[in-house]
Design a protein that fits this description.
single chain; 141 residues; alpha+beta; Nuclear Transport Factor 2, Chain: A; 6-stranded mixed β-sheet; two-stranded antiparallel ribbon; 30% helix; globular
Length: 141
């Protein structure tokens, strides 16, 4: 895989999420894909796991959009920082249960590390601050 193709694959994650293209997003990951969400302390596997993680955001924030703020590549690793924005108008699934819609706007900073294999994403590690989310939803001071 070329560096340019790796970068385009990762950029496609954000573009497809913004366009609500779940089928396209499924095509970007390997069958043995693994997603590790550091803030939640949880791991999802395979395309079904990828879809479940993405849909939790898409359902809870139907107007969600992402903006890539920076991107760096080193061999088969791609690193991004992005801003995620949306309005919490749907139920948010969390390890502690469902958070009902608050109607509040959120803006979160994410860092993500992607490991590539054969033009697809083999692993993604997502880093974000859950306390910032809870404060913006009005659930903690």
């Amino acid at each position: 895989m070329s560096r340019e193709q790796s970068i385009q694959t990762v950029r496609s994650v954000y573009e497809m999420f913004n366009n609500k293209d779940m089928n396209g997003l499924m095509s970007l990951v390997t069958d043995d894909f693994e997603l590790i969400d550091m803030a939640l302390g949880m791991t999802w596997r395979g395309k079904a796991g990828w879809k479940e993680w993405l849909e939790a955001w898409a359902i809870s924030l139907p107007d969600a959009k992402t903006r890539v703020d920076s991107l760096a590549a080193d061999g088969d690793l791609i690193f991004t920082e992005h801003t995620g924005m949306g309005t919490h108008t749907g139920p948010l699934q969390t390890p502690g249960g469902v958070i009902p819609p608050t109607g509040k706007a959120i803006k979160l900073q994410f860092a993500e590390a992607f490991t590539m294999r054969n033009d697809k994403i083999r692993q993604m590690k997502a880093y974000w601050d859950s306390a910032t989310l809870m404060r913006q939803l009005g659930l903690m001071a």
